[in-house]
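Many introductory courses stop at the sequence. We go one step further.
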Amino acid sequence: MPTALIPRHPVPSLNVPLVGGGRFVLGASPGEHFDLIVFYRGLHCPICAKYLLELERLSGEFAARGTQVVAVSSDDEVRGREMSDKVKAAGIKFAYGLSLRSARQWGLYVSTSRGKTSIGIEEPAFFSEPGVFLVRPDGTLYYGAVQTMPFARPQFQDLVSAIDFAITKNYPARGEFTGEV
């Protein structure tokens, strides 16, 4: 069962290989204000491709706001590269090889294969469902959203506006209270 991450608390580690070489190690070289971590289902997901095309389109907006962007899946290197190519990634980094254990540590849901998708690509035996996280340079969670389905994800244009607000107003991460209610 996934566990919820708590705002203002450290997020799990993330150390995954990047398409094109190297590794993304969360915290090793953080964005000035945030790292935007976008977990996606994999190459088999047509909704993910559309979502990541929008992320690539807005990558300059995130960069201008001191936000480093990485898209991560549990796909292997070949499928990770195919998705990167499909969205013509230039402004966002693509990482692959996310372990399902790490996915669960991030609070992501895990699904089992239902065969080929509508675009004729086989789903992996197991894969994580989507999640979007903004992580502060100190490694603490600022924002998080996870889905049990590929539908109805946070819109990236809304996140651009939220980052503007967070920076200009020095707005704290919310949802941090863990006491009795």
